[in-house]
Amino acid sequence: MYDNPQGLIAGSVIMWVVTTLCVGMRFSQKLRDRQRFFASDWLIVAAWIFGTGLTILEIYGVAIKSLGYKIGAAILDPTAITGQLNKAKHIQLAFLLLGIAGIDLVKLSVCFLYWQLFAKAHTKLRRFLIVWITLIALWGTSFVLAGLLECGSHLTAVFGTPTEYLKHCGSAVPSGYAMVATDFAADFVTLIIPIPVVLGLHIDTRKKILTLLIFLIGALSVASSITKGYIYIRSSMGMYTEDALIILTGISMWNLAEVQIGIIAACGPLLRPVLIRAFSPLTTLIASKWRSSSQVARHPKENQELPSHSDMPGSEVDLAKQSTLSEAKAGAQ
């Protein structure tokens, strides 16, 4: 799967094009609606820059035959220590550092989006987000430092013999396990943050389902972090048997995929006009089953109509206002 240079380049370019389109549409939508740019927007641009860097690295690695090709030896085999493998290790270290930073920027962008949408109306959520944003920032910083210092003061041991690597870099694999586990946990928590808020909105059921589905696009990011974790764990267990370059290629490719998929997922809530048209038939079906009781009998015509674009919370401002109104009504009751 990973010894296909043309496929790796094509996949990298396609993901970059899709993320570029998503970020471009996000900004053009804001300019068209004359909305302000917030921290969440600039953070996603920073993540896109890191994603672009990872794409260039992937293509460069394939071009110099350090990624996407077989070397014929396992990563801990003394015969595998060649210039080709060392170049791949340099690329892999850059992938690790840029990948963690890019993923962290995506998470922070999503958290700041929640802040601008919901924090004003929800005091408890505001307090939680302050803590959560701090933890996410510390998560990224700590694992970037862990990547830089995985061999302590013997950084060159990463590119040395297996004996040197095992002697000086013993914490690298446990640190990697901790990173992929906490990455998944952070993605999952970030994904479910808006669910109680959206369920509490005083809007039509179909609108509520549609809004929820748009936020749950973030499940793509959770799925990619699970996949990357699986690839990392499987690769670390196969260091004695699997081809060295294939292991590094697989890890680098899923590092890139997680960042790019995260950017796409983070742009989802701000591309509601496009996604509304895509999800409307599905939400109509779900809502009709959800409310197939007395409400259907009393309002048959209402349930037969698809939600129009003007009826939906189609912008950040509308959704923030809807959240504020719902919280005010709940407080009044």
Structure commentary:
Keywords: Membrane, Transmembrane, Transmembrane helix. One of its GO terms (cellular component) is membrane. The chain crosses the membrane at residues 6-25, 37-60, 93-117, 129-149, 184-203, 210-233, 245-271. With 333 residues, the protein is mainly alpha-helical. The chain has a single domain, classed as Up-down Bundle (Rhopdopsin 7-helix transmembrane proteins), CATH 1.20.1070. The protein is built from 14 helices and no strands. The radius of gyration is 23 Å and the shape is elongated. The model is unreliable at 296-313 (pLDDT under 50).
The SS-based structural class is mainly alpha
CATH topology: Rhopdopsin 7-helix transmembrane proteins
| Biggest sheet details | none
For the termini, the CA-CA separation is 58 Å
What's the level 1 CATH class?
A: Mainly Alpha
Number of domains: 1
CATH architecture: Up-down Bundle
Radius of gyration: 23 Å
Order of helices and strands: HHHHHHHHHHHHHH
| Shape assignment | elongated
Query: Portion of residues in helices?
Result: over 70%
Annotation field: number of helices: 14
Keywords: Membrane, Transmembrane, Transmembrane helix
Domain Rhodopsin: 25-276
Family: Belongs to the SAT4 family.
Protein name: Rhodopsin domain-containing protein
